[in-house]
Design goal:
The complex is a heterodimer of chains A (248) and B (223).
Chain A (H helix, E strand, L loop, with lengths): L21 H35 L3 H15 L3 H15 L2 H9 L2 H31 L2 H9 L4 H16 L1 H14 L11 H12 L2 H30 L11
Helix pairs in contact in A: 1-2, 1-5, 1-8, 1-9, 2-5, 3-4, 3-5, 5-8, 6-7, 8-10, 9-10
Chain B lengths: L6 H39 L4 H16 L2 H20 L7 H27 L2 H9 L4 H31 L11 H12 L2 H30 L1
Helix pairs in contact in B: 1-2, 1-4, 1-6, 1-7, 2-4, 3-4, 4-6, 5-6, 6-8, 7-8
Classes of the chains: A mainly alpha (248), B mainly alpha (223).
């Protein structure tokens, strides 16, 4: 590292166009990372929850269909999925729709592709957690609820899923952390999220180490915050005397 | 929907195979070296020696908190300068070395967690029994605990290898032509990006799906 001139004040410098400062670029990158991750997470929870439930319902074709869904999104690399959403989907939609998408602002196109990609990819992983959670419950729970006259949807909503939600909170935390880390692939289609900003800052300022260290610290910060929030949720939703003890 | 034309695949096949070889090379090296380094990290973490356990825990948690894309970019920033200092300007294409180092050191953090869980899953009595028989702690670990632990964790190690195989496509960010990078370049060159991307997705799917089915069958048999 000899010969490298550290210059931490670089973030306070103006960008070449003079419109703003380099630290603003960092914050914009953080915003995109958070925006695409959170919106993807909402979609992953909704789709993943639904598909996970479908995998456990009686009736073959629905659970098999859900199985195909999970295998597809799990066995294709995230990057390939992203490129399929970004380059292939507009070609395969009905022509007017595809053309409309191609007219959008590039940023909107990139965000749409990244959101769909992260949402679907993570939903398959969430679905597996939901399925495992449901299967871990004693079979008597379902039988008892049905015997009491609840319909199948009622059984899921009022008996099974409330228990499952608590059981799968820890694995869901790691999926949540995962979607933040995975959002860095959006770098490859030009979305200006954190890792892309690190590269852009390095190119513009010739101070790559400061830029990379700052971005890495921001990722660590987000990671720490997510863990803190999820731990809060875990403690506040814990039931005493439930299967996963509440006495610690 | 545009008409698909897969005819350029036939001429592209040799290049695609060369790309696939790069992918497999990174996967295999990073898996082997990553497991070895991961075992050492796991042993350090459960050693009970703070000066070993803390740095190992720091290493594992650090790598698990950073996106792989960022790790690859870091290595591509640092390694070329270090290597140039050591071996002079004429070091050729070092992107492969960067990718190998990044994936090995990154995956080791994940392997370490699998190995640690595997080691802790072996009953405590095994260690006690080994010590009672007059083996040293190290001997018990090597000949009694590790073999059992490794067998327990084989399915997880293999599953992680499948994830690694898929993740190698991220070398795209440093412009290395692995299987995916090659498919993308050929697609751009021939104006057949849609076909090449679909083909790449299909190949990854078939290989990963077959491998995961095999792991499932293997772990059902050995359980």
């Amino acid at each position: 590292m000899a010969g490298y001139h550290w210059h931490w004040g670089v973030f306070l410098d103006q960008v070449p166009s003079g419109e703003t400062y380099y630290w603003v670029w960092l914050l914009e990158g953080l915003q995109w990372t958070v925006a695409v991750s959170l919106s993807g997470w909402v979609m992953a929870l909704l789709c993943g929850g639904l598909v996970g439930v479908f995998r456990t319902v009686p009736g073959r074709w629905l659970s098999r269909l859900a199985g195909v869904y999970v295998e597809c999104f799990r066995n294709i690399p995230l990057l390939v999925q992203l490129f399929l959403w970004y380059f292939v989907m507009p070609e395969w939609l009905p022509t007017p729709w595809g053309d409309a998408i191609k007219q959008w602002h590039p940023l909107t196109q990139q965000f749409l592709a990244a959101w769909l990609c992260l949402g679907f990819f993570t939903s398959a992983r969430v679905a597996e957690q939901v399925r495992a959670g449901i299967e871990s419950l004693p079979a008597g729970q379902r039988a008892a609820a049905l015997a009491l006259g609840l319909t199948l949807p009622q059984t899921y909503r009022q008996v099974l899923l409330p228990q499952v939600a608590r059981i799968i909170l820890p694995p869901l935390t790691s999926e949540f952390l995962g979607i933040f880390k995975n959002s860095a692939v959006a770098n490859t289609i030009g979305l200006m999220e954190l890792s892309r900003q690190a590269q852009q800052l390095a190119d513009y300022t010739a101070q790559p180490y400061e830029a990379f260290i700052a971005v890495t610290l921001l990722y660590l910060l987000v990671n720490g915050l997510v863990m803190l929030i999820m731990r809060r949720i875990e403690t506040s939703t814990r039931l005493s005397g439930s299967a996963r003890g509440g006495h610690d | 929907m545009t008409d698909l034309d897969f005819s350029s695949l036939a001429t592209a096949l040799p290049l695609l195979l060369r790309g696939l070889w790069v992918t497999l090379e990174i996967t295999i090296v990073a898996m082997a070296a990553g497991i070895l380094w991961g075992i050492l990290l796991a042993l350090a973490r459960i050693s009970g020696q703070p000066w070993l356990a803390w740095p190992a825990a720091f290493y594992v948690n650090l790598f698990r908190s950073i996106p792989l894309v960022m790790v690859i970019l870091w290595f591509y920033l640092i390694l070329p300068q270090v290597l140039r200092r050591l071996f002079g300007e004429d070091i050729g294409d070092i992107r492969v070395i960067c990718a190998l180092a990044a994936f090995t050191l990154f995956e080791a953090a994940y392997y370490a967690e699998i190995v640690r869980a595997g080691l802790l899953s072996v009953a405590q009595g095994q260690m006690a029994a080994g010590l009672a028989l007059g083996l040293t702690r190290r001997q018990t670990l090597r000949h009694v605990v590790l073999p059992q632990a490794l067998r327990n964790m084989t399915p997880l190690l293999l599953t992680q290898a499948i994830i690694l195989f898929q993740d190698t496509s991220l070398v795209y960010v440093i412009g290395l032509s692995d299987f995916f990078g090659m498919a993308y370049k050929i697609g751009n060159r021939d104006g057949r990006l849609v076909e090449l991307l679909l083909f790449a997705g299909l190949v990854y799917f078939l290989l990963s799906f077959a491998a995961s089915q095999w792991v499932r069958r293997y772990s059902a048999k050995s359980a």
